Amino acid sequence: MRLSKSVLFTALLSLLFISSANSHSTKQVDNWLEFCPNIQLCFDGPTSLQPTDVQMIDSLAGQLENEHLTLYYDLGLYSSKFTELTSAVKKPVVVNGHKGTILIVKNKMALTIPHVSDNVRFSMLIEFKESLQQEKGERIFNSIKFNL
Questions:
Q1: Mapping DSSP to helix (H, G, I), strand (E, B) and coil, where does residue 93 land?
Q2: How would you class 48 by CB atoms within 10 Å of its CB: exposed for 0-12, middle for 13-18, buried for 19 or more?
Q3: pTM
Q4: Angle at 129 between CA 121 and CA 25, to 5 degrees
Q5: Closest by alpha carbon to 46, among 58, 34, 62, 63?
Q6: Most confidently predicted of 9-13, 34-38, 57-61
Q7: Rounded Cα distance, 91 and 89, in Å
Q8: HEC states along 29-84?
Q9: Cβ–Cβ contacts within 10 Å for residue 88, how many?
Q10: Dmax of the chain from CA atoms?
Q11: Residue 148, class by beta-carbon neighbours within 10 Å (0-12 exposed, 13-18 middle, 19+ buried)?
């Protein structure tokens, strides 16, 4: 009886160790954090994204980049409607309670939200340096939170 309890305990301990080892490896692969360039806007992205210098005129705008993608965002009166993406596939979406459109063409994904508050609209463009990673782009878009 004592031997069977020892074997059972060892088996359960081994399963617990294997289970926790697998959960740690998932977290390491999936390193994301919340970027809040201003109190009015937050979104999730890979931890490797780094801000680059951009000139802002009248908006909350910025650019983040890593070895896989470049991300541009603009919250303001003149944010892009992406009219130049004429051949894009369009998909309606609701982000943080606001109706918008995702546009997909080649290695680019864009999000435009025409009305966030008053005269404020929002746009975000993700340019993937290799092939399109739609799941990653949608994850970023769906994580956007406005505080206006």
A1: strand
A2: middle
A3: 0.78
A4: 95
A5: 34
A6: 34-38
A7: 7
A8: HCCEEEEEEECCEEEEEECCCEEECCCCCCCEEEEEECCCEEEEEEEECCCCCCCC
A9: 17
A10: 77
A11: exposed
Q: Does the CA dihedral 47-143-114-60 come out positive or negative? A: negative
CA distances from 85 to 5, 23, 76, 88 (A): 66, 40, 20, 5
Residue at token pair 């201003």 = 38
Using one digit for the tens of pLDDT, what is the confidence trace for 74-120?
Answer: 999 989 999 999 999 999 999 999 999 999 999 999 999 999 999 99
| d(C-alpha 26, C-alpha 29), whole Å | 5
Whether the CB-CB separation of 89 and 110 falls below 8 Å is answered with: no
What the block records as the tokens of 45 is: 């992205």
**What residue type is 21 in one-letter code?**
A
